[in-house]
Amino acid sequence: MLTDIIQNWYKYSVEENFVGIGSTRKVYRVSDYVVKLHIHPIGYKQSLNELDIYNAMVEQGLHELFAKTYYVDEYVSIQDYYKPVAMRDNQSFEIDIKRENIYIPSKYEEAMSRLDNEFDCFDIKDSSNYGLNKENKLVFIDYGMSKKLYENEWVELAESGILPQIHFTNCSVCGLKKELRMYGEHDGDNRCYDCGKE
């Protein structure tokens, strides 16, 4: 199955398999795997970082806290699938291990420390960067954005309207208050993804 997904990822990257979109990658589920389609070159860099981080976590005995990255090329990354952490009021939230009603895996704080200190990871407490395993414990699924990559490349592209930033506001079509993808400060298209805005 994995070999087929790697060789034929484009056949699986269809709307009925869609599970999520960020500013640089679009994600599709195929059985127990996900295809992360790189929609911007920064997405490719994030996926390469995830591959390096996962391999380092294997050596450090922390890999069970991370979605395994099997394959990366300039177009896609293939990882294990995990159920997403539910949003609250149509938005993501910061994981607080003292407050959450989520099972926190052992060695979570060690993994967080390594991500911060060894890999310079950015925004790793946001709930959208986690999935839940079969024991309902947190698993890192999106962990490839470094502070350097964010500051040196992502910010300028987001401020110029090339990459979307997330704003929490009402969708002009469905009327629900939710996270919208906004392209620069002059973007007046307040539609959510479900109502047609990518």
Automatic annotation (TrEMBL):
<keyword id="KW-0808">Transferase</keyword>
<keyword id="KW-0418">Kinase</keyword>
<protein>
    <submittedName>
        <fullName>Protein kinase</fullName>
    </submittedName>
</protein>
<dbReference type="GO" id="GO:0016301">
    <property type="term" value="F:kinase activity"/>
</dbReference>
